[in-house]
Amino acid sequence: MHMAKKKNDQNILLMTDSASDIADSDLLDGGIVMLPIPITIDSTGYLERVDFTTTEFYERMAGAKELPVTSHISSLTYARAYLDAFESGYTDIINTTITSVGSHMFEAAVLGKRQFFEEHPEAAGRINITILDSGTYTAGYGYPIVEASKMVKNGASADEIVAYLDDFYATVEIVFASYSLEYAKRSGRIPVAAAFIGDVLGLRPIISIIDGVTKVVEKVRGDKNVVTHIVDYAYTRAADKKSPTVVICGSVGQYGDDLHKAVSKKFGHAPRARYQAGASIAINSGPKVVAMLVRGEKRINTRAREQDF
């Protein structure tokens, strides 16, 4: 488990799960705690980013007899992580999970909070725990958490950081395409019909993810046109064309390079970061993916909240 070393002047701890795909260097710099997601590959249990790197996971996935399966981090693991933070002297934990749509991670994080305060009544009033449903995947919450870690260093309050993150999650949209649709068919997370028809006709679906819901927004003929269509569609979705963009890439680096160039040209500024798509994305859409995030129009109360559980 990546337990952050307490920086004496830092009382706010940012916490998340490994589906955020935050790079090790950013975790270290930002003092971010990333809890690993359990993954089963051919009936053996592993922890993402602990037992293998993302690149190694792609290799294992290619060699696996069955499609690997992720499970959620348990409420007990969350409760322990909160206790670690409390004992380290943090006064605030801001914990963001992968989208609550199709995952029990958010619910487990909320239950873990309840368990922690029941078992440690002395913590009441001494530590605040805020749990946010990102409503998204990968850099959709990894990137703003890294930005939030810079705010912590600059002395922002917990309330300011929660407001920033909440606003980001309320606007973030991911636009992506998979060049390995056979995985999408097996996992069933992306509308199967689109995957099937696409294969037969040589079409690639361009898919949007908003509040955890995937939707095919376009079908593109020919792999060489995919990147252009991702960027063009994302551009129409961006509420502020000057807002930061981020590129997400799977096992084929060239797709990421092409997207980076196309984004820079269309938006007039380069993507702020490049993320490597981890297991949660790769299992559901295969390792050959390319995606980008933009900030669209703000959505109100579209994600899970603590009081819902």
UniProtKB/TrEMBL annotation:
Asked if the Swiss-Prot or TrEMBL record annotates the protein with the keyword Zinc-finger, the reply is no
- Which key words tag this protein in UniProt? Lipid-binding
Q: Which domain of life is it from?
A: Bacteria
Task: Give the lineage.
Answer: Bacteria, Bacillati, Bacillota, Clostridia, Eubacteriales
The species this protein belongs to is Anaerotruncus colihominis DSM 17241
Give the molecular function GO annotations: lipid binding
Q: What is this protein called?
A: EDD domain protein, DegV family
**Transmembrane is among the record's keywords:** no
Pfam entry (one): DegV
